Amino acid sequence: MKRQILFLTAALTAAVLAGCSTTDNAGNENQNGASGSVVENVVPNHGNTQQDTENNNQNTSSGTSQNEGEGQDYKMGVGIVSRLKRAQNAEDTDGSAEINTVVAAVTVDGEDRIINCIIDKVENKLSISNTGSIGSVANTEYPTTKELGDSYGMKGASPIGKEWNEQIASFEQYVIGKTVEEVNGIETDDQGYAQENDLTSSVTISISDFQAAITKAVENAR
Fold first, then answer.
1. Which of 3, 6, 11, 117 lies most in the core, judged by the most C-beta atoms within 10 Å?
2. From the centroid of its chain, how far is CA 103?
3. Over 200-219, what HEC string results?
4. Domain locations along the chain
Protein backbone atom coordinates (compact mmCIF):
# COMPACT_ATOMS: atom_id res chain seq x y z
CA MET A 1 0.00 0.00 0.00
CA LYS A 2 2.86 2.37 0.80
CA ARG A 3 4.31 1.91 -2.68
CA GLN A 4 0.90 2.53 -4.22
CA ILE A 5 0.48 5.79 -2.31
CA LEU A 6 3.96 6.92 -3.36
CA PHE A 7 3.13 6.25 -7.02
CA LEU A 8 -0.15 8.13 -6.68
CA THR A 9 1.57 11.08 -5.00
CA ALA A 10 4.20 11.23 -7.74
CA ALA A 11 1.54 11.11 -10.46
CA LEU A 12 -0.50 13.92 -8.91
CA THR A 13 2.62 16.02 -8.40
CA ALA A 14 3.58 15.61 -12.06
CA ALA A 15 0.07 16.58 -13.14
CA VAL A 16 0.13 19.76 -11.04
CA LEU A 17 3.56 20.70 -12.40
CA ALA A 18 2.26 20.25 -15.94
CA GLY A 19 -0.66 22.54 -15.13
CA CYS A 20 1.65 25.22 -13.76
CA SER A 21 3.87 25.00 -16.84
CA THR A 22 0.88 25.54 -19.10
CA THR A 23 -0.22 28.57 -17.09
CA ASP A 24 3.24 30.12 -17.09
CA ASN A 25 3.79 29.54 -20.81
CA ALA A 26 0.47 31.10 -21.72
CA GLY A 27 1.26 34.13 -19.55
CA ASN A 28 4.74 34.53 -21.02
CA GLU A 29 3.43 34.32 -24.60
CA ASN A 30 0.92 37.08 -23.92
CA GLN A 31 3.51 39.26 -22.19
CA ASN A 32 6.11 38.69 -24.89
CA GLY A 33 3.58 39.61 -27.54
CA ALA A 34 2.80 42.87 -25.76
CA SER A 35 6.50 43.57 -25.28
CA GLY A 36 7.09 42.99 -28.99
CA SER A 37 4.56 45.67 -29.89
CA VAL A 38 6.43 48.18 -27.75
CA VAL A 39 9.72 47.35 -29.44
CA GLU A 40 8.22 47.84 -32.92
CA ASN A 41 6.94 51.25 -31.91
CA VAL A 42 10.28 52.51 -30.62
CA VAL A 43 12.76 50.98 -33.07
CA PRO A 44 12.30 53.55 -35.90
CA ASN A 45 14.50 56.53 -35.07
CA HIS A 46 12.96 59.68 -36.50
CA GLY A 47 15.13 62.29 -34.93
CA ASN A 48 15.19 60.64 -31.53
CA THR A 49 18.03 61.72 -29.32
CA GLN A 50 20.56 59.34 -27.88
CA GLN A 51 18.89 59.81 -24.50
CA ASP A 52 15.52 58.66 -25.96
CA THR A 53 17.16 55.56 -27.41
CA GLU A 54 18.77 54.73 -24.05
CA ASN A 55 15.42 55.18 -22.28
CA ASN A 56 13.74 52.84 -24.76
CA ASN A 57 16.44 50.23 -24.26
CA GLN A 58 16.03 50.50 -20.49
CA ASN A 59 12.26 50.05 -20.76
CA THR A 60 12.68 46.96 -22.94
CA SER A 61 15.26 45.51 -20.56
CA SER A 62 13.03 46.16 -17.56
CA GLY A 63 10.11 44.39 -19.24
CA THR A 64 12.25 41.32 -19.94
CA SER A 65 13.35 41.07 -16.32
CA GLN A 66 9.75 41.26 -15.17
CA ASN A 67 8.75 38.42 -17.51
CA GLU A 68 11.58 36.25 -16.26
CA GLY A 69 10.33 36.73 -12.70
CA GLU A 70 6.77 35.62 -13.45
CA GLY A 71 5.59 32.53 -11.59
CA GLN A 72 8.18 32.73 -8.82
CA ASP A 73 5.44 33.14 -6.21
CA TYR A 74 3.83 29.81 -7.07
CA LYS A 75 4.12 27.06 -4.46
CA MET A 76 3.14 23.40 -4.64
CA GLY A 77 2.22 20.97 -1.90
CA VAL A 78 0.86 17.47 -1.38
CA GLY A 79 -1.41 16.29 1.43
CA ILE A 80 -2.39 12.73 2.38
CA VAL A 81 -5.24 11.59 4.63
CA SER A 82 -5.81 7.91 5.51
CA ARG A 83 -8.79 6.55 7.41
CA LEU A 84 -10.02 3.12 8.46
CA LYS A 85 -13.24 3.05 6.48
CA ARG A 86 -14.73 -0.16 7.82
CA ALA A 87 -13.60 -3.30 9.63
CA GLN A 88 -15.04 -6.73 10.35
CA ASN A 89 -13.85 -8.73 13.34
CA ALA A 90 -12.30 -12.13 12.71
CA GLU A 91 -14.21 -14.89 14.48
CA ASP A 92 -15.04 -18.23 12.88
CA THR A 93 -14.19 -16.70 9.51
CA ASP A 94 -11.53 -14.21 8.51
CA GLY A 95 -12.11 -10.57 9.23
CA SER A 96 -11.31 -7.66 6.96
CA ALA A 97 -10.27 -4.04 7.02
CA GLU A 98 -10.60 -1.29 4.44
CA ILE A 99 -8.31 1.73 4.52
CA ASN A 100 -9.07 4.67 2.26
CA THR A 101 -6.32 7.13 1.40
CA VAL A 102 -7.01 10.51 -0.18
CA VAL A 103 -4.16 12.40 -1.84
CA ALA A 104 -4.45 16.06 -2.84
CA ALA A 105 -1.88 18.06 -4.80
CA VAL A 106 -2.29 21.83 -5.05
CA THR A 107 -0.57 24.85 -6.48
CA VAL A 108 -1.09 28.18 -4.70
CA ASP A 109 -0.19 31.71 -5.74
CA GLY A 110 1.47 34.47 -3.72
CA GLU A 111 -1.79 35.10 -1.85
CA ASP A 112 -2.13 31.39 -1.00
CA ARG A 113 -5.12 31.02 -3.31
CA ILE A 114 -5.45 27.66 -5.03
CA ILE A 115 -4.78 27.89 -8.77
CA ASN A 116 -4.62 24.16 -9.46
CA CYS A 117 -5.94 21.16 -7.52
CA ILE A 118 -5.89 17.43 -8.23
CA ILE A 119 -7.43 14.86 -5.90
CA ASP A 120 -7.52 11.06 -6.04
CA LYS A 121 -8.24 8.18 -3.71
CA VAL A 122 -7.14 4.57 -3.21
CA GLU A 123 -9.22 1.97 -1.38
CA ASN A 124 -7.22 -0.91 0.10
CA LYS A 125 -8.94 -4.01 1.48
CA LEU A 126 -7.10 -6.59 3.57
CA SER A 127 -8.26 -9.87 5.05
CA ILE A 128 -7.26 -10.67 8.64
CA SER A 129 -7.30 -14.20 10.07
CA ASN A 130 -8.70 -15.07 13.49
CA THR A 131 -5.10 -15.49 14.66
CA GLY A 132 -4.35 -11.89 13.82
CA SER A 133 -2.24 -12.42 10.71
CA ILE A 134 -2.87 -10.63 7.46
CA GLY A 135 -4.26 -12.97 4.83
CA SER A 136 -2.90 -13.47 1.35
CA VAL A 137 -3.71 -10.78 -1.17
CA ALA A 138 -5.21 -12.14 -4.37
CA ASN A 139 -5.11 -8.82 -6.18
CA THR A 140 -1.82 -6.93 -6.10
CA GLU A 141 -2.99 -4.08 -8.32
CA TYR A 142 -5.29 -1.43 -6.93
CA PRO A 143 -6.27 1.25 -9.45
CA THR A 144 -7.21 4.60 -7.99
CA THR A 145 -10.84 5.64 -7.86
CA LYS A 146 -10.23 8.06 -10.72
CA GLU A 147 -8.63 5.33 -12.80
CA LEU A 148 -11.64 3.07 -12.26
CA GLY A 149 -13.87 5.65 -13.93
CA ASP A 150 -17.34 4.29 -14.71
CA SER A 151 -16.40 0.83 -13.41
CA TYR A 152 -16.33 2.23 -9.85
CA GLY A 153 -20.09 1.90 -9.96
CA MET A 154 -21.30 5.03 -8.18
CA LYS A 155 -23.37 6.53 -11.00
CA GLY A 156 -26.35 4.22 -10.51
CA ALA A 157 -26.61 5.04 -6.81
CA SER A 158 -25.87 8.75 -7.17
CA PRO A 159 -28.87 11.08 -6.76
CA ILE A 160 -27.41 13.28 -9.49
CA GLY A 161 -26.36 10.40 -11.75
CA LYS A 162 -22.64 11.21 -11.65
CA GLU A 163 -19.68 8.86 -11.19
CA TRP A 164 -17.01 9.52 -8.54
CA ASN A 165 -14.44 10.80 -11.04
CA GLU A 166 -16.99 13.27 -12.42
CA GLN A 167 -17.86 14.56 -8.98
CA ILE A 168 -14.26 14.97 -7.87
CA ALA A 169 -13.51 16.89 -11.09
CA SER A 170 -16.32 19.30 -10.18
CA PHE A 171 -14.96 19.70 -6.65
CA GLU A 172 -11.43 20.32 -7.94
CA GLN A 173 -12.80 23.10 -10.11
CA TYR A 174 -14.93 24.48 -7.27
CA VAL A 175 -11.93 25.17 -5.01
CA ILE A 176 -9.95 27.05 -7.66
CA GLY A 177 -9.45 30.64 -6.52
CA LYS A 178 -10.19 29.83 -2.88
CA THR A 179 -7.90 29.97 0.15
CA VAL A 180 -7.67 26.97 2.46
CA GLU A 181 -9.82 28.87 4.96
CA GLU A 182 -12.53 29.27 2.33
CA VAL A 183 -12.27 25.59 1.39
CA ASN A 184 -12.71 24.57 5.02
CA GLY A 185 -15.54 27.08 5.28
CA ILE A 186 -17.68 25.13 2.80
CA GLU A 187 -20.79 24.19 4.75
CA THR A 188 -21.18 20.45 5.40
CA ASP A 189 -23.33 18.24 7.59
CA ASP A 190 -22.01 15.95 10.34
CA GLN A 191 -20.98 13.32 7.79
CA GLY A 192 -19.07 15.74 5.58
CA TYR A 193 -21.63 16.14 2.81
CA ALA A 194 -21.75 19.60 1.24
CA GLN A 195 -24.81 21.72 1.98
CA GLU A 196 -24.19 24.61 -0.43
CA ASN A 197 -26.60 24.61 -3.38
CA ASP A 198 -23.99 25.63 -5.96
CA LEU A 199 -21.95 22.55 -5.00
CA THR A 200 -24.60 19.91 -4.27
CA SER A 201 -25.78 20.07 -7.87
CA SER A 202 -22.51 18.45 -8.97
CA VAL A 203 -20.99 16.89 -5.82
CA THR A 204 -22.96 14.60 -3.49
CA ILE A 205 -20.04 12.58 -2.06
CA SER A 206 -18.58 13.43 1.35
CA ILE A 207 -15.92 16.15 1.02
CA SER A 208 -14.46 16.18 4.55
CA ASP A 209 -11.41 14.08 3.63
CA PHE A 210 -10.85 16.24 0.55
CA GLN A 211 -10.88 19.35 2.72
CA ALA A 212 -8.42 17.75 5.15
CA ALA A 213 -6.06 16.65 2.36
CA ILE A 214 -6.17 20.10 0.73
CA THR A 215 -5.40 21.70 4.10
CA LYS A 216 -2.30 19.52 4.50
CA ALA A 217 -1.26 20.19 0.91
CA VAL A 218 -1.43 23.97 1.37
CA GLU A 219 0.43 23.73 4.68
CA ASN A 220 3.16 21.70 2.94
CA ALA A 221 3.37 24.02 -0.07
CA ARG A 222 6.90 25.19 -0.85
1. 117
2. 9
3. HCCCCCECHHHHHHHHHHHH
4. 73-219
Chain segment 94-124, per-residue pLDDT in tens = 677 788 999 999 999 999 999 999 999 999 8
Under a CB-based contact definition with an 8 Å cutoff, are residues 117 and 176 in contact? yes
Terminal C-alpha separation, the chain: 26
Radius of gyration of the chain (CA): 25
Query: CA-to-CA distance for 102 and 147, rounded, in angstroms?
Result: 14
Model confidence band, residue 84 (pLDDT cutoffs 50, 70, 90): confident
